[in-house]
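2024-03-11 09:14:02 INFO receiving multi-entity request
2024-03-11 09:14:02 INFO entity count = two
2024-03-11 09:14:03 INFO echoing inputs for audit
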Amino acid sequence: MSEGLATPATTPATKSSRRISARFTELSASGELGIVAYITAGDPSLEASEKIVLAAAEAGADVIELGVPFSDPVADGPVIQRASDRALRSGTTLAGVLELVTRLRRNTQVPLVLFSYFNPILQMGIEKFADAAKAGADGVLVTDLTPEEGAEYRVVLQSRGLDTIFLAAPTSTDARLAQISAVTTGFLYLVSRTGVTGTRDALPPELPALVRRTRKFTALPVAVGFGISLPTHVTVLGGIADAAVVGSALMAAVEKAASPEGAAMAVADLVRALKNAARAGVSRRSNEA
Amino acid sequence: MSATTRPSVTPDARGRYGPFGGRYVPETLVAPLEELETAYAAAQADPKFHAELNALLRDFAGRPTPLQFASRLSQQLGPRVYLKREDLLHTGAHKINNALGQGLLALRMGKKRVIAETGAGQHGVASATVAARLGLECTVYMGTEDMERQKLNVFRMRLLGAEVVGVDAGSKTLKDAINEAMRDWVTNVASSHYLLGSVLGAHPYPQMVRDFQKIIGEEARAQILEAEGRLPDLLIACVGGGSNAIGLFYDFIRDASVKMLGVEAGGRGKGLGEHAARLAAESGFGGARPGVLQGTYTYILQSLDGQVAATHSISAGLDYPGVGPEHAWLAQQGRAEYAAIGDDEAIAAAKTLARTEGIIPALESAHAGAELIRRAPQMKKDTLVILNVSGRGDKDMETLSRYV
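2024-03-11 09:21:47 INFO inference complete, emitting structure
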């Protein structure tokens, strides 16, 4: 697999993390909620994922999270579990996802974040992973890695100019929020509720207070994920967060689609609707003001 | 009889056994794990907790369990073999030791509900039993393949009032049941305690489960000293996650003269997917390397690109791709040795135990018996062995009936 990795260790860091902060700076200037689109890489194939990601970016996604499939996705609900299964059955490996990232970077400037469980990265080797990732990715989020266990990982990734995005959760104490904020770069990913990924009808009522509490510990943009799927969620989040992460709703559309082209169109339609809601939120707020 | 006669020497403050262990979980679970760690430490320091636990272990579970001299087996094999009779406990296996400890802890923490995973069904039955005894709600996750091969235990759990949820993902066995139990826990952290059944998962689980199981070795030590006037030469126990083995081993770790042997499932072949031998790699079993699965860093059967592999064993309780991090550490230090026994040898050993000692062991425990039978010809007559009969074989009748 190693010969497939695109970038030798000597290539200088691309300063890719600038792409994420630049995008959030733009969003902040326009007062617009960002849309982070999560796509499981390799579902139904890496070629299809390439089309889907480009379509999502074209439709206005501000950041793409590319999910690395894992055999035991304990933080994910049924939709992303099934997407992971399909991706693994199509032969997707972390090395393959990294090649996809490199290919994508030739065709789009959208910020790309790799979203993985720790074991595939550990088996590849953190340094080798970071060297390959920096060819196209801007940041990395590891679902089952906390600041305590992630010290070496953080040093290696940040030395390659990759943002290290850590999760914050409703159960995180103030002390933990401070600790998480101290080691996170790019943006903070705030889990909206206790539970796994998946679409829900309503946002949790405690969410605004949770975002406010989180902001006391970080100046970074806050992206809210888990259970976000509808334009109405985006409208509500517009007054609260900096970005909304949408995953299961997109992967459910990929699951239903009859072809990669159909999947790309369906995902683009959803992203466009969410992005429109985000833009409408801006005009609504400016009208109110 | 006290549940804690010796201080813990491992793990360190971050739950590490040498390089193994730790806490690899989504952020949502960190605070609950810290809460559990604190509550567990408080319980350990509270004599009332120990008094309550010891009373339940004695009156409800049936401790102490006998250390039986296996006279006919010894005569047949050569060495002097003693059997630690965990199979005689209420619900039929050592799992009740840990379920009672964690059940009491759940009450102390004000939880109304426990979540459990189960492979062979023994931990699920123990959890359902303890939940009923303590007035807690109980949900048990079980792979659908395991539900099929352990129907009797599914019925027992339901009779005890537990909800049994079939898990149809992945290999439909223990690993997938743990994934689903973790998803339930991350969703219901405020109301529920995750009653993990083996020395697996994120810190403090491997330590806590070991501490609730180390009573096996503490009793065995006193019993063998009384019976033989000396320490044993060899301890043998099967290793799935490894809770009955660490329970037997722990009190002897400092005694260098006592050899410790863990027996994994050799399944039906040495290729990846055919077995569940994580530490017995020197005997040619493929695919185990250190990695992170379900909260802990340990030896895992996996593909080169880090996907967790399927496993096979005739015994559902050993059919798991990871192993407790403390076992990984004992193996790395050379303090304990690990071997693997195939499906057929386990069946044969179950038959031998049944016919020489009148004990039908669980198929898990039969793996340990088989390794003893394999090594006995190299042992001296005065070699003193303790074999942990971790559970009884009632649950395996359907499987056994196809072979015997």
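2024-03-11 09:21:48 INFO post-check: The CA atoms of residues 2 and 51 of chain B lie 8 Å apart.
2024-03-11 09:21:48 INFO post-check: Residues 30-44 of chain B form the longest helix (15 residues).
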